[in-house]
Amino acid sequence: MLRCIYYILVLKGLFLGSGSVLQIFNGLYDSAEIYLCRPHDKYDPRLGQLNSMEKLEYFIDSIAKLKKISKNDFPGYIKLVDSLIRMRFYYGLQNYRFSENYLANLAGKLIWYDMGAKVLPDDILKGRKAFCSQSSIVFQEFLRRKGFQVRSVFLSNHFCTEVLINGRWQFHDVSYKPQLKSLVNLSTEDLLANPKYLEQAYLYTFAEGFRDNLQGTFTPENISYGEINAFAAPRMAIFHKVTGFLSWWGWLVFLGMAGVVKIIMKKN
User: Fold this and answer.
1) Is the CB of residue 128 less than 8 Å from the CB of residue 89?
2) How far is residue 102's CA from residue 184's CA, in Å, rounded to a whole number?
3) Most buried one in 105, 108, 115, 178, CB count within 10 A?
4) Which residues, including other chains, have CB under 8 Å from residue 226's CB and lie 6 or more apart?
């Protein structure tokens, strides 16, 4: 029995080890990301250097200091965060590359497509593009760290955010990038009650299909809300943390366990 367990652990260790080696070599020859921005998708490639939550926080706080925007000026500070995260990404689904997390990459290709899509904020920031859920996850994570209350807004085939400011929920869409301007203090409920505000806000969005079906999308039956300050994809985050660790160090864990079993076998 122990001998069988030993060989199983060795095989798993060798399998994960071969994947880790391929992951390293793939990273050495990985091609640069090619990006194609849609019209009105306000993206600034210079912000790509903000590749972690720590760097993003430092940069935004530095800009706030230069513009003399106090963190106690909640509407002004959140508007700044919104505008910079809009420019940080262009629209597109960002999946794990083989060189980043080969287990999640293969799971996304062979099992379920969503398993390969990034949900961890620091991992999302390593790329240039982001789906609506991904840019919203970064936006929400940033504001949670600053002590704000946020919640997800789930629409039909879209994902947005509300932030609680001075006792009122405020709607934000950092992905489709509507021009809210004077409408920045409106909640999702306000937009539902005033269709003309919706048309004005999304007039120049790059997502033409979404814009053309606003009235069908922004209806009470098509909108739901997440729990306050809840992470949008907790199970997938755990999956990506586990596969991320196993992609790099799984071979060491299993071969180490095999070594322990071998010692026990010798004693017996």
Assistant:
1) yes
2) 41
3) 178
4) 151, 152, 153, 154, 232
φ/ψ (deg, to 5) at 225? -125, 145
What local confidence, expressed as pLDDT, does residue 35 receive?
66
Burial 35-59 (b: 16+ CB within 10 A, else e): eeeeeebebeeebbebbebeebbee
Give 117's DSSP letter.
Answer: B
Q: What does the pLDDT read at residue 34?
A: 63
Token reading at 9: 């652990």
191 vs 187, 216, 222, CA distance in Å? 6, 13, 13
Q: How many CA atoms lie within 13 A of 217 on its CB side?
A: 21
* pLDDT tens-place string over residues 101-155: 999 999 999 999 999 999 999 999 999 999 999 999 999 999 999 999 999 999 8
- Amino acid at site 257: M
Average pLDDT over residues 12-31: 84
Structure tokens of 233? 């994809």
Report residue 61's pLDDT band, with 50, 70 and 90 as the boundaries. very high
Whether this prediction's pTM lies above 0.70 is answered by yes
**Looking at the DSSP assignment, which residues form a beta bridge with residue 90?**
129
Q: What does the mean pLDDT of the chain come to?
A: 88
The DSSP 8-state label assigned to residue 90 in this structure reads E
